[in-house]
Amino acid sequence: MKYLWSGALTFKSVKVNAKMTDSSSAVQLVVSQDSLFSFPDYSILYSVGASTNYMVSLEINGLNPQTKYFYAIQSDGIIDTSAEDIGSFTTFANGPFSYSFVIGSCGINSNHRVFDAMRNLAPNFYLNMGDLHYQNPNSGININIHRLPYENSVLSKPRLAKFLKQTPIAYVWDDHDYCGNDSDSSYAGKVNARKVYHEYVPHYPLAFGSDTTSPIAQSFTVGRIHFILTDLRSERYPGHIMKASQRAWFESECLYARDHNLMIAWMSTYSWSGVGTDNWAAFSLERTSINDFLYCNNIQNLFILSGDAHMLAIDNGTHANFSTNTCPAYNYPIFQAAALNQNGSFKGGIYSEGGYFMNPNNTFGQFGRVIVSDESTSLDSICIDFEGYRIDSSGASLSLINSYHFCRYLPPMTTTSLEEKKNAIVSIQPNPSQNLNVIFYEKTILGSIQIFSVSGELVFSKNINETVDEYHIPLNLKAGSYIVQFDTNKGSFKKQWIKL
Q1: Complete DSSP assignment for 450-490
Q2: What pTM was estimated for this model as a whole?
Q3: Chosen CATH of 3-89 out of 2.30.42.10, 3.40.50.300, 1.10.10.10, 2.60.40.380
């Protein structure tokens, strides 16, 4: 085994991606609560071979919440327990709890002391906001052009490798680790970049599946914060940052968080309030439309995390309103955290907490820490601290550059209602999808299906009157978000569906 790192952490599961030295049909992830692996638990068996460059993605479930585990790889019955090949993680709580995570982007030196500084803070996980490496791969022919940066510029570098073995990652790319400076959906390497992401990165379930025609957008919940990670590079095209399907997914994730009394952490890899050509300012109509959606749908509890611009900068949300002001506005705090180690840059924006702090040069390091205070004795509020740090070129001095504290009211988390229990009878899978594929978990007499746009317009209606387990309908509708109503002998149910 050559490399390993973990990610997609939950309160009961984790994923580990590893690079093996040869083919095997019996690779397992092994976890234990002690570093000697005295009482190990094993994942299912996985196969690995040359088609994925000997990378394998392993997952294990059934772990205990808020428990520290050590992990290693077993191949053909032999566990690799050499010290440099053992990692660790601590599972999340199953419900509200206090925790911290570190954020950063834009790194050209993966053996920089900034990774030691982040590791020493013992975060629960690491949210990388793009430019994990600066190798600018772009090839539609040679897939190794996209594989080698993960190996040569990330996983093989001692300081970053040690950090990643002890800190699960959540990660979506920006331009330099996707296909190059200012890259978008037109770049030749798009398909290879997506394929290699699936091979190498231990990621949360992707919103649009695992095929290489889809973006790497994903979401997950930690405590009472719902994290939404949008892919703003591989789908970006002239005039738009997100295609209609990803935009509809993003909106549905925001509504889900609102309806379940969760705060939203939106990872927008580049700056929301910047100016210029390579951030949201160049897509002002789309930015305004998103802002209007958030305000007009009463999305109150949201904050934005960004990188790309090589600076630390915090705004309390008063400079983040780009709406048409047709609906009541809310303050969405913004935390820009970069560069991990790259020369400083400023891409515009107004930041209330001391302005902006560009990285002095690429020998210095900068990153952010987010501290979540969510005590079980006070379930009506959650408090967040943003802390921006700089480490000097010698690695001897870690300084707090800027910070911001805010709290938000959150009602207690919703429990499963009678309506939700009823709706468990029917599911749309997969979702998003091109055609409507419905699964009924009980034998059901399906009377009719009606489909409505988000504005309430009826766009499809069909009487069925059949006893079904599944039902499939090819539909020629525009991509976007719809509400599907099922009238059955067990009641009338509504489900949200995203049409690709």
Answers
A1: EEEETTS-EEEEEEEEEEEEEEEE-----SEEEEEEEEETT
A2: 0.84
A3: 2.60.40.380
